[in-house]
């Protein structure tokens, strides 16, 4: 949902009585005027800070002006609102909609944590055990015969596995080829 649509949705909530006081509105206008990127020009800031107009009118005009300017300007308004009135920002109707979890949706952060909580060493250990069992099962199966290529592969195994393990595997392969 774009920030302009969110601002349109939150407009009634923000302009209702006693939500925002004059000091907070002035701080927001000044922030939009002074902070980079400059959202409001000096003339616009003076217009929205004019104490002769009612607070409701100034705030409504400010929100309509920001919606006309585009999504970036509305986003900066929300940032200024969060900085200057965090409790009100958290109570916005659009924020409550964003915070409401969909019961059918998977929480990817929780799922990612649950999948990655063991680390890479655990993965390598499980993979090594599975590969070792597969090799052992293949070699012990009486229906299969050990092919000469397997001997060549294990001949290069000092790079992959230790020398003692390689010697045991080679002796086992030679014994299996004799039977």
UniProtKB/TrEMBL annotation:
Range of residues in the leader sequence: none
InterPro entries documented for this protein: CARD, CARD19, CARD_BinCARD, DEATH-like_dom_sf
Upper taxonomic lineage: Eukaryota, Metazoa, Chordata, Craniata, Vertebrata
Keywords, ordered alphabetically: Disulfide bond, Endoplasmic reticulum, Membrane, Mitochondrion, Transmembrane, Transmembrane helix
Membrane-spanning parts: 120-138
GO CC annotation: endoplasmic reticulum membrane; mitochondrial membrane
Subcellular localization, as worded in the UniProt entry: Endoplasmic reticulum membrane; Mitochondrion membrane
Membrane topology annotation: Single-pass membrane protein
Name of the protein this chain belongs to: Caspase recruitment domain-containing protein 19
Organism (species): Pheucticus melanocephalus (Black-headed grosbeak)
The gene coding this protein: Card19
């Amino acid at each position: 949902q774009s920030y302009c649509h969110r601002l349109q949705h939150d407009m009634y909530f923000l302009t209702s009585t006693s939500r925002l006081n004059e000091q907070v509105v002035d701080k927001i206008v000044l922030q939009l005027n002074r902070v980079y990127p400059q959202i409001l020009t000096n003339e616009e800031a003076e217009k929205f800070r004019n104490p002769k107009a009612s607070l409701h009118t100034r705030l409504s005009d400010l929100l309509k002006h920001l919606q006309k300017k585009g999504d970036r300007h509305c986003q900066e308004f929300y940032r200024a609102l969060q900085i200057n009135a965090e409790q009100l920002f958290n109570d916005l109707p659009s924020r409550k909609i964003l915070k409401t979890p969909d019961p059918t949706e998977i929480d990817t952060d929780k799922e990612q944590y649950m999948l990655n909580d063991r680390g890479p060493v655990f993965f390598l250990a499980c993979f090594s055990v599975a590969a070792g069992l597969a090799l052992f099962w293949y070699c012990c199966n009486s229906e299969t015969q050990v092919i000469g290529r397997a001997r060549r592969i294990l001949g290069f195994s000092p790079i992959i596995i230790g020398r003692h393990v390689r010697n045991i595997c080679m002796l086992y392969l030679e014994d299996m080829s004799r039977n």
